[in-house]
Specification:
The protein is α/β, with parallel strands linked by helices. It has helices at about 40-50, 90-100, 105-120, 135-150, 165-180, 195-200, 215-220, 225-235; strands at about 1-10, 15-25, 30-35, 55-60, 65, 75-80, 155, 185-190, 200-205, 210-215. It starts with a strand and ends with a helix. The chain binds adenosine-5'-diphosphate and magnesium ion. This is ABC-type quaternary amine transporter.
Length: about 240
Amino acid sequence: MSIEVVEIGKRFGDFVALDDVSVSIPTGQLTALLGPSGGGKSTLLRIIAGLESADSGRVEIEGVDATRLPPQKRNVGFVFQHYAAFKHLSVRRNVAFGLEIRKRPKAEIRAKVDELLALVHLEQFADRLPSQLSGGQRQRMALARALAVEPTVLLLDEPFGALDAKVRKELRDWLRRLHDEVHVTTVFVTHDQEEALEVSDKIVVINEGRVEQIGTPDELYDKPANDFVMRFLGPVT
Ligand code: ADP
Ligand code: MG
């Protein structure tokens, strides 16, 4: 099973943001969409999520043609760079939100939220407001909230981009460990080569609306498909 992106085209006016992009994203893995700013990574992620429609091509999620499905029918969890938490709700209620609007039984919600807060190591902060968390803790809350509705796919757009270098590194390692625990198919956007190389199972290099290479970190490193990939990955530091 997988997410199949098939010949997706997207224009903004005359500008070609995605030029017949095809990618197969394997189930259960952690995949990075990596590339320079403006390359089309977020647009592709938003099309997979159903937040933006493509001009041509199709998206299949786990064997289902999702091309024309609205976001809420795609069973995806989404985390953005700047997470919009409900400021007046506790951490617990923020995480519970998706379950509450689905009218799940109270006891079930409580158990699920406890489990998620433990998973993201925020148990002791359950009753705080989001403003009383650090930036890194807030992004962990965002992840717990995205996972609450048990999505088939977790989509993250530069989730750690707004954090300082040290916290970024911590969260990156933490995302890897979390993924190894829950195994949910995860696609995350980053422009940071090191981040992609260190945490992902597979990397899709995207530049100027085209896929330059798809491979494991080792494959990209040992056999860059072209000069662009070689230059973009740069020397090991
Ligand atoms: P990335 O996430 O790789 O930085 P994006 O997918 O955000 O790139 O954007 C790809 C290109 O499409 C950029 O040149 C951007 O300016 C353009 N673009 C994205 N969204 C819009 C939009 N809503 N209207 C016009 N241009 C857009
Ligand atoms: Mg982007």
